[in-house]
Amino acid sequence: MASISGSSGRIGSLDGLRGIAALWVLIGHAMLLTGWHLPLIGDPDLGVDLFIMLSGFLMVFHYQLRQEKEPWSEISTWSNFWTRRFFRIAPLYYVMLAIAIALGPVIFDSRMVIDHFLGVTPQLPERYLDGSLENVLLHVSFLFGLSPAHAFRTPLPDWSISLEMQFYAVLPFLMLFIHRLGWLRGSIGVVIAGVAIAMALRLVGINFPMPAFLPLKMHVFASGMLLAGALNARSGRAFTHFLLALAFVAIPIGGGMTVMREVVRLGLVVAFFALIFHAHLPRPLANPLNRISDFMGNKFCHELGELSFGAYLIHLLVMQPVIAYLIRAHGHDISNFQRFLLSIVITIPIVYALSAVGHRFIEMQGQKIGRTLTRRRTSAA
Q1: Is the distance from CB of 249 to CB of 223 less than 8 angstroms?
Q2: Which of 26, 150, 206, 245 has its CB 3.0 to 4.6 Å from that of 226, i.e. a possible disulfide?
Q3: Rounded to whole angstroms, what are the CA distances from 105 to 114, 156, 157?
Q4: Which pLDDT tens digit goes with each residue over 75-100?
């Protein structure tokens, strides 16, 4: 159904979506930190939701490509999956975590300048200055997202990294459950369980500063999973997957909810579905969507997508000192828009240059280790 390239089964337009998601988060944070705002674009949480939806889609999509060779009924499939995902995420994250903790006082000083200038409630010092063994171990183990006190406690926007690792941890069990009940009943059951846990947390007064606990975002992951499942469904059933995915993202949990945010989340599902299934839409819609899909899968967008993880991790470490410098140097002599424009003109080249270095020398090497380890296990089996 989708436009899939090569033997790897890559859907090219998803590279562009990953790149857009990272830029959305970067630009949204720049708006928040400079005081200049545009609706929607200035909301980095929506960019994170796009990442989450993509993750749910891609994990199921790649599993469906491998399910004959690597069925979830085999424990070796689980260990191979977890090994590949660990070495995809952990190497660059560990490097950036060490840098973030070392630079914590510098980033905190920059943030205090920004918060004072904008007249907003200052960030808590422990978010930037907690280099305790407990905090470090929770982050190295990726368990920090399970603790409200530690879910948002480094200069990195890494609350979503623990969230992602929680999703990887339970995905084999989710897939077995969905296989047993079928896509529609299974996904509804998974989302109901997530909502019930989220409501129970609220009732007992447990609040996360960011939705770093999986039940708070399970419905968004599930919407992406449903769209991947639709690839192997009949056309009528595929549309049912789409409608259910829309219903899931409209569930009002997992962060500040407004009518506009909900509309945008629904729009993300519609856009995602249109990119994946554009060949089956009426020609007046299919033709422009095909051109958009081709553009988002070109070499530039592919590279932008490859650098998206690094850009997501790195950008705040660069952006906050840059904006603090602009405030100290120019204060109110420049407008909020000028400050925003200068900040992204300075920040984006530095962030993507560092991301390219990190991708080549850390991410790719980590992925190579993961592939080597899983290949040895498969050969031994």
Answers
A1: yes
A2: 245
A3: 14, 13, 16
A4: 889 999 999 999 999 999 999 999 99
CA distance 339 to 359: 29
Q: Angle, nearest 10°, between helix axes 183-203 and 218-229?
A: 170
Both tokens of 356, joined, read 């390219």
Q: Pull the structure tokens for residue 290.
A: 């095909």
* Over residues 278-287, mean pLDDT: 76
Structure tokens at 16: 């562009």
| Rounded Cα–Cα distance for residues 310 and 186 (Å) | 34
The sign of the torsion formed by the CA atoms of 34, 37, 42, 45 equals positive
Amino acid identity at 260: M
pLDDT in tens, 31-66: 999 999 998 888 999 999 999 999 999 999 998 888
Quote the CA–CA distance of 185 and 177 in Å, as a whole number: 10
Of the candidates 271, 270, 252, the residue with the CA atom closest to the CA atom of residue 261: 252
Rg of the chain on CA atoms, in Å = 21
Q: What's the gap between Cα 193 and its chain centre?
A: 22
Are the CB atoms for 351 and 314 separated by under 8 Å? yes
- The whole-angstrom separation of Cα 161 and Cα 156 is 10
- Size (the chain), residues: 381
Amino acid, single-letter form, for residue 88: R
Tokens, residue 374:
């899983």
For residues 265 and 49, the answer to whether their CB atoms sit within 8 Å is yes
Q: In sequence order, which ranges of 125-258 are alpha helices (DSSP H)?
A: 126-129, 133-140, 159-181, 183-203, 218-229, 235-249
Residue type, 244: L
What is the H or E stretch that residue 112 is in? Answer: helix 104-118
